[in-house]
Amino acid sequence: MTRAAPAHLDVPRPQRPGAAATAPAGRLRLGIDFDNTLIAYDRVFLGVARARGLLPARFAGNKQAVRDAVRRLPDGETTWQRLQGHAYGQGIGEAALFPGVGRFLRRCRQAGHDVFIVSHKTQFANYDPARVDLRAAALGFMDARGFFDPGKYAIRRENVFFESTRAEKLARIAALDCTHFVDDLVEVLTDRNFPSGVARVLFDPAGGETPADLRACASWREIAAALLPDVLLPEVLLPEATR
Ligand SMILES: [Mg+2]
């Protein structure tokens, strides 16, 4: 499908009285989903599916391709859930940030935008014999990648929220007065309880069909172009001699 290039997303006016005072002018309150939005599990799923002999060693493909192939196996749905339990827990160290995430988060830090991570994530997976705490695993991943490092992405640790249900996730997004929310799931962004007044951005690296009222971006470079169009960093833009 063709898709219009994302234009700048206007910061919506807060809907509730008094909410306007929470963010200084020009500062965004960016809410971002975690799984499959910031963090890509493709190579975790591929690696573990091959290692467990579920797929041929020559099999190649992203998370969705692995899921489709595994689900076709006998007892495939349970097997897929077991793989998920592993990937989001013990296997998370093998996952990677999507390309462009690091630069996006640095630009947010430099522009003074508030970044919130709001994830629908249960504490434990359905099928995980190791009983790994999935929330602790996600925090460990963020910590290891410099999310909380003042010299790197400088996200406040208390700006990370794990919610047990989608309804609680939507309530959190509303309570945080987010100006924008980025998520990889259409069903989250189009939920009838999604807070009005929050600009919705679909992260859709596969470039599928999207509802007309939803802005879709295929990469974090596109999201940056849509959300952070005016961030000019003097220390980067000025020639060395003039700093
Ligand atoms: Mg997600």
Labels describing this entry:
six-stranded parallel beta sheet; disordered N terminus; 2 domains; binds magnesium ion; 9 helices; about 35% helix; single chain; disordered C terminus; about 240 residues; 8 strands; Rossmann fold; alpha/beta; two-stranded antiparallel sheet
Brief digest:
33% of the residues lie in helices and 13% in strands.
SSE blueprint and pairings:
Blueprint: E1 29-32, E2 39-40, H1 42-51, H2 63-71, H3 76-87, E3 96-97, H4 101-111, E4 114-120, H5 134-144, E5 160-163, H6 166-175, E6 180-183, H7 186-189, E7 199-203, E8 215-217, H8 220-227, H9 234-237
Parallel strand pairs: 1-4, 1-6, 4-5, 6-7, 7-8
Antiparallel strand pairs: 2-3
Helix pairs in contact: 1-2, 1-3
Magnesium ion (MG) is lined by residues 33, 35-37, 183-185.
